[in-house]
Amino acid sequence: xxxxxxxxxxxxxxxxxxxxxxxxxxxxxxxxxxxxxxxxxxxxxxxxxxxxxxxxxxxxxxxxxxxxxxxxxxxxxxxxxxxxxxxxxxxxx
Length: 93
Known about the structure:
Mean pLDDT: 97
CATH topology: Chitinase A, domain 3
GO molecular function: peptidyl-prolyl cis-trans isomerase activity
Number of strands: 4
Shape: globular
Largest sheet: 4 strands, antiparallel
Structural class: alpha+beta
CATH architecture: Roll
InterPro entries: PPIase_dom_sf (IPR046357), PPIase_PpiC (IPR000297), PPIase_PpiC_CS (IPR023058), PpiC/parvulin_rotamase (IPR052204)
Number of domains: 1
Protein name: Peptidyl-prolyl cis-trans isomerase C
Helix content: 25-40%
Order of helices and strands: EHHEHEE
Low-confidence stretches: none
Function: PPIases accelerate the folding of proteins. It prefers amino acid residues with hydrophobic side chains like leucine and phenylalanine in the P1 position of the peptides substrates.
Keywords: Cytoplasm, Isomerase, Rotamase
């Protein structure tokens, strides 16, 4: 079964998500940006969601995590929770 590890940042607006993505692409540390901005409890761990299988996350999240290249920040990804920046940290297909 496919498994992946990922980290994310959850914010309320697409504009904020794009702003944070630009900061990370400009050299800001993903984990620190998550701690400072993410509304998800995972922000305390720098956005780290640990390891999970296909189907354990909402479908929009799942689709990105199991198709995006490892180590490349993706997003904004809209879910019912808000807007996410996602980074797949590892994946075993």
